[in-house]
Design a protein that fits this description.
alpha/beta, five-stranded mixed sheet, five-stranded parallel sheet, 20 strands, globular, binds flavin-adenine dinucleotide
């Protein structure tokens, strides 16, 4: 059976060349500008108000564009970004520990297992330093040292301390900064904020993205909105696995609708499984909780040396413990990158040395840190995380080690964008977790906040001018044929979901889909398993469209209807993820193909065959377009953290 076709290669026409240090400066200089008086004649729709969308909306409005923002929560402040705990990277080198823009660039390209673009990553590292200044100026309360300088800690995959943080609530504090900047523009009338509205379709006219179809989630009213450009900042799709650390509402609908209309979807199989989450406690559960990677600065990961050792952790003497990350990876120890730490946890559990119910857990132990630093210091650094752990598990991590296990956390794949963050649909820009751009096959900790804010505050506001300089575009009205077609397709789909009137809940389908994905497209993937998963997903999807029960109507607040639409899109995405994972017959970062591993069980890349971005075109049989990756500065090598 043919699961995919191969099409023409895709290339990044906006990619700059020349010395990497000057690419972004030269690119910005060569871009067209829009005169301030003309900016108010141009409108931009921004879907999403997380760190990426919030920062972009505020900056574009500050520059003088008219912005209309959408989010499905009741306030922009509730975007999933608020959950981010551990910190944000920046190459400030405040610690004088050898950090630099070049080192952040190097760490990120290597951390992504040589599957990201060098130019994008270098720009990210350059812009990282501006982000911190911007946020400090907004009043974001980053942690400080005694002398007043901003404090730093380390995250996985680095040997320097470059992570800025606000206790375990960094995302919340950064989002409040972006939100305030947005609110200022809302008050000035330059941003029109539409909370509790869900984008359900993209409107394309004459080949350009020109608007969106949205549903008012309170009244059910369907409306259309037009602009000169559309920005998607709609976040990641980890919830395709049902259980993940993402907010329950996170979904792929905005990106998937754009994909169905022609935007290529890149590297969908690159999923990040985070090593330190609270283990699943039973089948009733609908959400998993992250314990921030920052905890690995001081917590030590271990399991008993012997299989099936069921003694309490305190009864197991030092000599009978295996601090396996410190043993296998002495240079990076507990701070190896997430893909490596997650696989190592899986391996020790597979060996029968896991702890807790079902043997699916490892210890994260703070006893040494408490002895070395004192309880008070540990409390100051991680207090809210410890409290969260205790509330969920009923165990006190100051007294007994935390139990942790890997869980789905982040998606490196997303809509394909060029260096300007423009998708393959002219006028459709994609920023933050929704695009695929900078992390390759594995994202390093504290780099998502950096990328989202780099995109929103600094990159997009520069690159979008080049596109908008050709505007304003033709004025549209609701009776334009393309607009009517987009709107009708939304109405028909909602009516179809309501009409099934079957006997199974949306959640039961979502949970089953998640099981399939975790089993066959999770931490370890095989050709046989992926092929089986595609068959299972197709069968379950057919079942969904004949048996799903969506109570209520479309003309009211109806969360089952919202979920049904999102799960329907997850089914299609899940199939593409498995096809992408199947076609990539190598292991790279978070994508571990059991058939492709080194003798000691590490991921084995095949650079000669797979050194490309896989950009997929929508179709009954999807078409693969390859974007070749070239490495001039950080030459691909075996990624070792030993
Ligand atoms: C528990 C947790 C902790 C994390 N900690 C860190 C950390 O310490 N450091 C780090 O770098 N990263 C961290 N991350 C990752 C990081 O938080 C996310 O990658 C990042 O916040 C994503 O930001 P975003 O703006 O792209 O999307 P989001 O914050 O997910 O925002 C998406 C927005 O899009 C809107 N939206 C989506 N679809 C639609 C639609 N169809 N119509 C209308 N609106 C829509 C939503 O309403 C929302 O406003 C963490 C992630 C998790 C889950």
């Amino acid at each position: 059976m043919t699961f995919w076709n191969e099409g023409e290669p895709v290339s990044d026409a906006a990619a700059p060349d020349g010395p990497i240090e000057t690419r972004w400066e030269r690119h910005k200089f060569s871009a067209k500008l829009v005169n301030p008086a003309n900016r108010r004649k141009l409108t931009v729709i921004v879907v999403g108000t997380g760190l990426a969308g919030g920062s972009a909306a505020a900056t574009l409005a500050e520059a003088g564009y008219r912005v209309r923002s959408y989010c499905y929560q009741d306030s922009p402040r509730r975007a999933h970004s608020i959950a981010a705990q551990g910190g944000i990277n920046a190459a400030k080198n405040y610690r004088n520990d050898g950090d630099s823009i070049y080192r952040l660039f190097y760490d990120t390209v290597k951390g992504g297992d040589f599957r990201a673009r060098e130019s994008n990553v270098y720009r990210l590292a350059q812009v990282s330093v501006n982000i911190i200044d911007q946020c400090v100026a907004q009043g974001v309360p980053f942690a400080r040292e005694y002398g007043g300088l901003l404090d730093n800690r380390s995250f996985g995959g680095t040997q320097v301390s470059r992570t800025f943080y606000a206790r375990g609530q960094t995302g919340q504090q950064l989002l409040l900064g972006a939100y305030q900047a947005m609110e200022r523009q809302i008050a000035l009338g330059t941003i029109e904020m539409n909370a509790r509205h869900e984008m359900l379709e993209l409107i394309i006219v004459d080949g350009r993205a020109r608007g969106v179809v949205v549903r008012d989630l309170v009244t059910g009213e369907i409306t259309t909105d037009f602009a000169d450009a559309v920005v998607l900042a709609s976040g990641g799709y980890g919830n395709v696995f049902f259980l993940s650390t993402n907010a329950k509402g996170c979904n792929v609908t905005a990106s998937w609708r754009a994909h169905r209309k022609g935007a290529l979807f890149a590297n969908p199989c690159y999923t990040q499984i985070h090593p330190t989450c609270i283990p699943e406690s039973g089948t009733h559960q609908s959400k998993l909780t992250l314990m921030s990677e920052s905890l690995r600065n001081d917590g030590r990961v271990w399991v008993p040396l012997a299989r099936g050792d069921s003694r309490k952790p305190g009864d197991i003497p030092e000599a009978e413990r295996d601090y396996y990350l410190e043993r296998i990876y002495p240079s990076f120890g507990n701070l190896v990158p997430r893909d490596i730490a997650s696989r190592a946890a899986k391996n020790v559990c597979d060996e029968g040395r896991g702890v807790g119910p079902g043997g699916l857990g490892v210890y994260l132990d703070f006893a040494d840190a408490i002895e070395r630093l004192g309880r008070h210091t540990v409390e100051e650094k991680y207090g809210n995380l410890f409290e969260m752990y205790q509330r969920i598990t009923g165990e006190d991590p100051y007294e007994v080690p935390m139990r942790i296990y890997p869980a789905v956390h982040y998606t490196m794949g997303g809509l394909w964008v060029d260096y300007d963050l423009q998708s393959t649909i002219p006028g459709l820009f994609v920023i933050g977790e929704a695009n695929f751009s900078d992390h390759g096959a594995n994202r390093l900790g504290a780099s998502a906040l950096m990328q989202g804010l780099a995109d929103g505050y600094f990159v997009l506001p520069n690159t979008i001018n080049n596109y908008l300089a050709a505007g304003p575009f033709e004025k549209l009205s609701a009776d334009h044929a393309e607009v009517v077609a987009a709107r009708t397709s939304v109405e028909d789909r909602l009516a179809k979901l309501l009409a099934v009137d079957g006997d199974r809940t949306v959640d039961s389908f979502h949970r089953e889909l998640g099981h399939i994905m975790w089993e066959y497209c999770g931490m370890e993937r095989t050709e046989e398993g992926l092929t089986k998963a595609i068959g299972l997903i197709r069968g379950l999807r057919d079942d969904f469209w004949t048996r799903v029960k969506v109570p209520g109507t479309g003309e009211q607040l109806n969360q089952n209807l919202e979920k049904a639409g999102r799960v329907a899109d997850f089914f299609e995405l899940a199939e593409l993820m498995c096809i992408d994972a199947l076609h990539r017959g190598e292991s790279a970062g978070g994508h571990f193909r059991a058939e492709s591993q080194t003798p000691d069980g590490e991921a084995l890349r095949h650079d000669d065959e797979f050194s490309y971005v896989a950009a997929w075109e929508y179709g009954d049989v999807p078409t693969l377009h390859k974007e070749q990756l070239d490495f001039e500065y950080v030459h691909p090598s075996t990624r070792s953290y030993k």
